[in-house]
Design a protein that fits this description.
two-stranded antiparallel ribbon
Length: 251
C-alpha cells in the first residue's frame, strides 16, 4: 500500500499532464479538463470497489476480496507499459528547490536595486532554450515584482555577458516566474485543506458510524465500508456538472 500510494499516486496525474503540449491550443484546452476526468476515472474505481469488492470480502472471503484488486492492478500495470512507445517523456530538469532558493537569495541580495520599467532588460538566456532543462521559457508577469530583482543585471561584467555563472546572484526570468507560479498556487492548496479533512472521514468516521446504524434495506444489509459510496457518487455528479455546465458558462 505504501509503495502504491507513495510511488504511483503523485506521479500518474503529473505524467498524464506531460502528454499535453502547452504550445498547441487544442492540447492546452484538453489539459485543463484532464484532471477532472482523471479524478472521474479514479472515482469510478472507488465506486466499484466500495460496492462489489466490499460485498465479496464480507460474504465470500478476504482472500478473494484482496485478490481481485491485485489482479486488476497487475492488468493495469501491463496496459500502462504497453503504452510506453507512444508516451511523451519530458526531460528531467532537476529539483526546483535549488532554483527557488536562488531566486529568493538573489532578490534579497539586490533588495535596494530598482526593477527597470522595460522587462526586456531583465536577464534571460539569449537562445530559444530555457535555462531549466526540459522546460520552456516563461513570459514575464507583473505580479510579485520584488522577485524580479533577482533577474536585474547590475554589474558591468553581467552586462557584458561574462559573469552570469553565479545563479545565486543572477537568475533568469524563467526561474523567477517559476517561483511566482508556485506562490500563486498557495491559495489553491490552502482551500484543499478543508476538502482533505472531509475526505479523510470516508475511511474513518463513515465506517464507524455505519457500524452502529440500521443498514438494512429489505432483506439486504449495506456493508459499513460501502457508505463511502454516497460520497463517491456525489463527486461523479459534480465533475460532470463542472465540466458540462459550470465551465462552459465561465468561458
Amino acid at each position: 500500500v505504501a509503495l502504491g500510494a507513495g510511488g504511483i499516486k503523485p506521479c500518474v496525474s503529473s505524467f498524464g499532464a506531460d502528454q499535453f503540449d502547452d504550445t498547441d491550443p487544442p492540447e492546452k484546452t484538453g489539459k485543463a479538463s484532464f484532471f477532472s476526468w482523471f479524478y472521474f476515472s479514479i472515482s469510478i474505481g472507488c465506486l466499484v470497489s466500495s460496492i462489489f469488492v466490499v460485498w465479496i470480502q464480507e460474504n465470500v472471503g478476504w482472500g478473494i476480496g484482496f485478490g481481485i484488486p491485485a489482479l486488476f492492478m497487475g492488468v493495469s500495470i501491463a496496459v500502462f507499459f504497453c503504452g510506453t512507445p507512444v508516451f511523451r517523456f519530458q526531460k528531467p530538469g532537476g529539483g526546483p528547490l535549488a532554483r527557488i532558493c536562488q531566486v529568493v537569495i538573489a532578490s534579497l541580495w539586490k533588495h535596494k536595486v530598482d526593477v527597470p520599467q522595460d522587462v526586456k532588460l531583465l536577464y534571460e538566456t539569449f537562445d530559444n532554450a530555457s535555462a531549466i532543462t526540459g522546460s520552456r521559457k516563461l513570459e514575464h508577469t507583473e505580479e510579485l515584482k520584488f522577485l524580479d530583482k533577482a533577474a536585474v543585471v547590475v554589474s558591468d561584467s553581467e552586462k557584458d555577458g561574462g559573469d552570469i555563472s553565479n545563479s545565486w546572484r543572477l537568475c533568469t526570468v524563467t526561474q523567477v516566474e517559476e517561483l511566482k507560479i508556485l506562490i500563486r498556487m498557495f491559495p489553491i492548496w490552502a482551500t484543499s485543506i478543508i476538502f482533505s479533512s472531509v475526505y479523510a472521514q470516508m475511511s474513518t468516521m463513515f465506517v464507524e458510524q455505519g457500524m452502529v446504524m440500521d443498514r438494512k434495506i429489505g432483506s439486504y444489509t449495506i456493508p459499513a465500508a460501502s457508505l463511502s459510496t454516497f460520497e463517491t457518487i456525489s463527486i461523479l455528479l459534480w465533475i460532470i456538472l463542472y465540466e458540462k455546465v459550470i465551465m462552459p458558462i465561465a468561458k
